[in-house]
């Protein structure tokens, strides 16, 4: 009887471990600067948070991590890939514009080299990359922009999340 209980406990432990591995591998990381972070908005209004809510509404247990940092540059994003993109991540939604780079004296050539290095590092880990720049630019061009003329509104973030939803399944 004790042996059966011990085996049952071991089986439950193995099942829990496998479930946690599955959950860890179902991660999506949104990597970028202020429009990823949700500058000027509540955290629940950022496009990564809205994407997570949309996935959950469809019954998905996928977790979307917002690794956007306002003011970050392509060099900053490159330097923090190891800490921002945990093991088990299967998708990175990448948004790297040159705006912050230009403000901080990073040349267009260096910007492109940094973006290429970011993509190489992610691909070398077997991570699929989805580029969010087009969705963000589309929302900005549609006027879904805060008063500063740079950052998305909550509605703009919703539009970005809707645009990405089909790509992350």
Task: Please sum up the structure shown.
With 169 residues, this protein is α/β, with parallel strands linked by helices. It has helices spanning 2-25, 34-37, 47-57, 74-79, 81-84, 99-103, 108-124, 133-141, 154-165, and strands at residues 27-32, 63-68, 89-95, 128-131.
Mean pLDDT: 88
Beta-strand segment tally: 4
Largest sheet: 4 strands, parallel
Count of DSSP-assigned helices: 9
Report, as a whole number of angstroms, the end-to-end distance.
45 Å
What is the ordering of alpha helices and beta strands? HEHHEHHEHHEHH
Description:
By secondary structure, the protein is an alpha/beta fold. The chain has one domain (26-165): Rossmann fold. It has helices spanning 2-25, 34-37, 47-57, 74-79, 81-84, 99-103, 108-124, 133-141, 154-165; strands at residues 27-32, 63-68, 89-95, 128-131. Strands 2-1-3-4 form a 4-stranded parallel sheet, sandwiched between helices. Helix 3 crosses helix 9. Mean pLDDT is 88; it is low at 12-26.
